Amino acid sequence: MLPIADWNEVFNSNWAKSVVAILGSIGAVGTAVWWVLSRFYRDRFKNLAQQAKSHRSQLADAQKTAQAGHQSLALLQQSHKQQSREIAVGHAKIERALLLLSQAKDKEVRYLQEGQRLLMQRNQLRVELVHHKGLSDTLVSQVTDRDGQLQTVRSELDERRRELDRGERRIRRAIQLDGFLWTAKALQRVPRFRPQSERRQAIISVVNLKGGVGKTTVAANLGATFARRGYRVLFVDLDLQGSLTDLLLPLDKIKMLHANGSLAQHFFDAASVAPTTKLGGFVQSVCRFPDGGSVDLLGASDNLGYTELTLTLRWLLKQGKSDNRFLLRRALHRPAIAKKYDIVIVDCPPFVNISCINALAASDHVVVPVTLDSRAMERVPVLLKRVLGSEKFRKSINCDLKILGIVANRTYREKLTLAETEAWSQLGTRCRDAAGEDVRRFETTIPISNEARDCNDLLEDKPPNSKATLTFAALADEIEQELPRECRRPATTLS
Length: 495
What we know:
Oligomer: single chain
Distance between the termini: 185 Å
Largest sheet: 8 strands, mixed
Number of domains: 2
CATH topology of the largest domain: Rossmann fold
């Protein structure tokens, strides 16, 4: 480090003075530069201040614009929320429509398909809503369609309710009948009863409201007797046990007919659906006699009871276009059957069911077998008064039906005992009181006979002087005399 004296020398030297002079010059130049720079930057700062003021004004305008934009955005958001609520309401309506459609049980499959279609449409609507395409028009159209569909469903439901109401009324009326099926008014399209003079044929029902009186035995032997005289006989077995069929046909034949659907129950079932069903396809040939007589059979089995129940329910509920009480009349009164058979004998059940009414509605005559005991005789006046003599029966079922007569069956001997004679006389009085007029009682009585009841050889040749042959020949003579002349065969003697 230099001493102070040395420093003074340095300052007093020429080069130091030159340096000082230079520095002074630099100071003057610096002052001038500062003045120039200060004037430049002052103007510059003014310009910057003006720009800053302009920018602040633009910023304020921008803030106002942004605020207006926020308000517009808020309005758009509110509008979007309103549209979302409308969409939700539309979806809720669609869901309610789907729920109502799904509750219609009888249209379940169709409604499930409709639900799938609605789901697809809903998905399509969602896509359209996302893209803001046709929102309002589509929703209005869909709602209109759903309203139309709902109206259709309501109409269908109303129709179902009306059908249920009609069914309930029919059931109440059926219950009020209390089993008296013959008292109900006939439905439309009832086949006309063709008189015997037009058909040249006799239809005879063998009926009694008491079982075990020998209806089947009487019917079978009468038919066989007429066939031997040259009559073309058709047996119709309507007994629910099929007893007449068991007598005339072997068991394997009956099983085959049942399997092929060729029995009386099959005919009734087919004819109740198709009134044009022909009886000939269900009739079986049983026997032919040399003099032209023949025996055919419309057989039955115990399954006839099930068909009977079905026919009754269909008729009571008025299902179908025909009255099931007149199926046999339509079939037996056709010209083809009338030309083929001279006598039709119907073996009826021991109560008035729809099969028995079919027989009575088709028949010209009634034969009433009866045993001379109190229980059996009690049912004959009931039959005459409650059924055959009923005004409702004659008006609704058959006003042309005639009581051919009452035959005493299973007596002890050919001539009645005193007790049987008394019972037979009392029966005549009770029948007259029930019918309001005398009722024919056949003179021929049918005694208990194994030969008459054993029908295994019913259609075989029998001795002309056998008791059973002579008895039923006499009864056939009485019946034949009551038939119209045009229904009789020229030959009336036993072959």
